[in-house]
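Following up on my earlier message about magnesium ion. Here are the inputs again, as you asked, copied directly from the submission form:
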Amino acid sequence: MAPLASLATLRTFRAENAAAALEAARAALGTDACVVSTRTVRTVTGGSEIELLVDTVPAPSAGLRTRPIARPTLATPPVSRAPSFRLAPPAELGEQTALEERLRAAGVFDCLAGPIADGCRRVPGKTPIEALDGMLHELVRVGDAPWSRPQGQRIVALVGPTGVGKTTTLAKIAARALLDNKLRVALITLDSFRIGAVDHLRHYGEIMDLPTWAARDEATLDQALQRSRNAELVLIDTAGRSPSEVESFERQLGLCRAANADIVLVAAAATGRRQLRDLRERYAGASLAGLIVTKVDESEGPGAFLNTAATLGAPVLAWTDGQRVPEDAHEADLEWLRHGVLAGGRSGDDEDRG
Ligand SMILES: Nc1nc2c(ncn2[C@@H]2O[C@H](COP(=O)(O)OP(=O)(O)OP(=O)(O)O)[C@@H](O)[C@H]2O)c(=O)[nH]1
Ligand SMILES: [Mg+2]
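Thanks, got it. Here's what our run produced:
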């Protein structure tokens, strides 16, 4: 905290990033001023800005530069303040800014990039970039892939908006469960009203030689589950519905609950901020067991993955980046995510996926 005696000489400058805030401070005060502290502040629109606290009293032979936040009081004899930089961000701010800008370049929402970089800056004993790993573990929970071997029978229902890749992802999960873990798998679709939807799933069922059932109410679902009782993994496909179709949405969730299924939300990585928030609200009462992030290949990459996973909050069980069954389904991997967001953009290299 700045000493009281200098409050009159302190001014704050806010801008969307630290470089712009420094530029504003420099334009107003010239180069002979000191940056006392920096912080990320929330804006009324829910975004974030960098705020610089700048002392307008020029330091001897110094440019616009940093000095430690724990400054000497007036009672203390002034210490020699050799300029740590001239017209350049302070080292601490530079690291934070570098991280924030890398996150933004990777497509991370502004409202996440600022607080993440700020949080990383506050981790003692680590540079912001070193602290990113821990921050990602806090933001993105990870769960077992749906194709991993369950204890007893596992029933997984995929829910989510129209066209996000639920049916394709279900086929990928089934194929990986068969190929990787030799599980006995059965498929059920609740999407039995739409022309072609049952055939879509049946087509995959036939290719993989899996029992496939269609259900439209509690009785037919119960029957399908009875017929699937020997399966170790039962995968339930649902119809994509727009969130406004409340009745069918609630009905499908009700059926998934009646089946005692793990309800897993499927969401496309390129989903916008507002739609993600709508989705989070829509499924708030669904007790989601997990999240699968799809179509990462059609998004900005790891940054978009991070936006989706951090906004929706459910543990990420898998992600997909293409139409191939099952090659384009992957376990959640925070190392890939960290590497990708630090690379500042798409990370499409196969070896990065781990
Ligand atoms: N590029 C890309 N396309 C994908 C991915 N996953 C699925 N798709 C494609 O997205 C389209 C829609 O996939 P579906 O599996 O039918 O989506 P859905 O959610 O079941 O759709 P509805 O049942 O209509 O709600 C198909 O063309 C898929 O091949 C992915 O990870 N990347
Ligand atoms: Mg479908």
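One observation from looking it over: The first strand starts at residue 10 and ends at 15. Hope that helps, and feel free to reply on this thread.
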